[in-house]
Amino acid sequence: MKRNEPKTITILHTNDIHSHFEKVSSIAAHIAREREEAQGSPLLLVDIGDHMDRSAMETEGTMGGVNVDLLNLTGYDAITIGNNEGLTLTPEDLARVYSGLQAEVVCCNLLEETTGEPPSWMKKHVVLEKGGVKIGLTGATAPFSAFYELLGFKALEPEAAIRREVELLRPQSDIVVVLSHLGLATDQRLAERIQGIDAILGGHTHHLLEKPLVIGNTAICAAGKFGDYIGKIRLEQQPDGAFRMAEGCVIPVDTDKLDETVSSALNRHRLRAEEYLQETVAVTDRELPLDYTSESPFGNLLAQAVRRFAGTGISIVNTGQLLGPLPEGEISAGMLHTLCPSPVNACIVKLKGKDIRNALEESLLPDFWGREIKGFGFRGEILGNVAVDGLEVLYDPVRIPYDRIVEITHMGEKLLDEQEYEVGTLDMFTFGIGYESLALGRDPQFLLPEFLRDLLRFELVRPGSLAESERRRWAQSH
Known about the structure:
Layout: E1 8-14, H1 21-38, E2 43-47, H2 57-62, H3 65-74, E3 78-79, H4 83-86, H5 91-98, E4 104-105, E5 110-112, E6 125-130, E7 133-141, H6 145-150, E8 153-155, H7 158-169, E9 175-181, H8 184-193, E10 199-202, E11 213-215, E12 218-222, E13 229-237, E14 243-252, H9 260-276, E15 280-284, H10 297-310, E16 314-318, E17 329-332, H11 333-339, E18 346-352, H12 353-363, H13 366-369, E19 386-389, E20 392-395, E21 405-410, E22 413-414, E23 420-426, E24 442-447, H14 452-460, H15 465-469, E25 474-476
Parallel strand pairs: 1-2, 2-3, 3-4, 7-9, 9-10, 10-12, 16-23, 20-25
Antiparallel strand pairs: 1-13, 5-8, 6-7, 11-12, 13-14, 15-17, 16-19, 18-23, 18-24, 20-21, 21-22
Helix pairs in contact: 1-9, 3-9, 10-14, 11-14
């Protein structure tokens, strides 16, 4: 840099990669090229969370170890965590996997309940120096408070937490950057309400900003999802000493370009994960078919697994959580992961009979069982029909929609519309996804950290569970 030229810094950012490992080698190759072209000019590389996703076999089999190794090899300077890191790994697993991370983990709105401080592997903020420029970084993650409490964390309201960190960072930093796994709407509010933020690098809602939004003096950036793009922003020092965005964009990732070191590491982790997931967890004496349109044994087995784990008299699940039939013979951990990859947890709610009935009526309609669902932990393709345990359903398929169920019984008694029942179901329904009447349940109790595939594993070794899954819950009134 010539003496009279203003100071500049380039920040590259990724978000919501979700263990799309087909992109990570190409991302690393592009970043290496950016560093080469920078010719020593300051460059910062950050990730905005949800780099991990346990629906990927490599992440599941290494409990995030592969993700940390790839972050290290790519040369990230700092990251924040998303809900896929914070909620799908236990605190012990997080501590173990992040102990090997060379980047700083920054997040100001997640504290340990016992200490009131961030866990040992996380900081509320850091100040990094690049080429004589001091960059103050803080981060925040989506505050799913009810879930985090079950893992021993307290999730703070992010705006107040970020404001405190910005006030601390501003006097000691040339540039203040927020790594925000909070979503675009929240990022816009932060820019409007908090003075002193130069850039908000965002994620969580998978939004793609081809050009940064500018609110006041704050640039808001985001690079979409799944590693399709890398975000890039260059900040330049103004005559008054402040840094402002000079340019910002997103760069499509060229999957023809690969980083050999990252590709080699990924292959090694993949082999290690496959070996780990070969463990036999059950042996079956029959195949359990799966049907998304009507009752099937594998769907029933999932409903049984949830009811027994939740300890409720009734369970309601969607068969779209399962991606294929359960074969006869040896069942490995990897097979259960392949068949049930979603990081979805069971929960207990208090539901009125009429809301249960409504969900079961919807389950008979193609508009519902065939509905494509995205996000909220769901990693299947379509919603699938409802599978139940603890209920007997008599229905007439030729009657008009929403009047096809003739009678529902529970423990030999007719289900009453206004009576409340304790129901084991899935956390995604509490967000109003899919069978929306299930979100009307009161007093949700979330059962963490076990996923549905863990519950299937427990149910498969219970004597008589396979035969029980073949017992019909739905009967036509002919």
